[in-house]
Amino acid sequence: MNFAELFNRTGLIGAHRGARSIAPENTLRALKVSVGHCDFMEVDVQLSSDGVAIIMHDDTLERTTNVNEIEEYKNREPYNVSDFSFKELSSLDYGSWFDGKFEPLLTLSEALQFIKENRVFLNIEIKDMHKSFSDEQVVLLVLKEVEEWNVEELVMFSSFRHEYLPLCKERLPDVITAALVEDTHPNNLMEYLKSLHVDGYHMNDELADKESVQKLRLAGFFVNVYTVNDPFRAQELFEMGVNGIFSDFLE
Is residue 202 part of a domain? Predict the structure, then answer.
């Protein structure tokens, strides 16, 4: 099965940043404990200052690392990810903030190796980095690693920076892509999504309603909703026709 075939189904559970309720988010440990408890996993990718693709959600480092405890980094506020080299990012602890246990940086390459070895699906959200890198540079560096690991059928790309998505299709026409939105739908939604050449639409829970979901599904787009931690709400969404939800809690 590939990702496209997976989304012929409904009732799918996506592990939001891995199993982040029981392991530090966006780490290898979070991916490992998700295996067998979800249909696909989700991580966020950014670039270090020297162009290495790393797994990290926030634009800054202080929430999920020990960066502000390291003396040599004291003058680096606001600790933007894109201001730190790969070597510097690799020196940080990504787990102790969560449960006191050290966890190393997870690179995109390591995440792709993991899904290849375990034959699991991964949604890669490409964070908006247009202030630091060109769109073409971001897409080239991220997709190059997917090609090197030969896992095109196991990954899906999503982003709030919709400019990335057509570029992904240009380089890898068969890769699955989805537009991420929050709070409001783009104008002329169906035509807009077709212009992006995306396969799916990821919206926040507050936006999801039966009419919107049915229109999207009838137009041929799969629909996923984030972040849904209430099982009763999840069931409502599946009854609307939503393909999958992103959740912090995996049953």
Answer: yes
Please report whether residue 222 resides in a domain.
yes
Condensed to tens digits (0 to 9), the pLDDT of residues 200-233 reads 999 999 999 999 999 999 999 999 999 999 999 9
**192 belongs to a structural domain:** yes
pLDDT exceeds cutoff 80 at 251? no
Q: pTM for the complete prediction?
A: 0.97
Q: Count of CB atoms within 10 A of residue 106's CB?
A: 23
Distance CA 107, CA 127 (A): 14
Residue 179: in which H helix or E strand, if any?
strand 176-181
CATH number at residue 192: 3.20.20.190
- Backbone torsion region of residue 143, taken as left when φ is above 0, otherwise alpha when ψ lies between -120 and 50, otherwise beta: alpha
Total tally of structural domains belonging to the chain:
1
Amino acid at 136: E
Please compute the mean of the pLDDT values over residues 85-99 and round it to a whole number: 98
Token pair 């990335």 is found at: 164
The DSSP 8-state label assigned to residue 38 in this structure reads -
Domain coverage including residue 130: 3-59+106-247
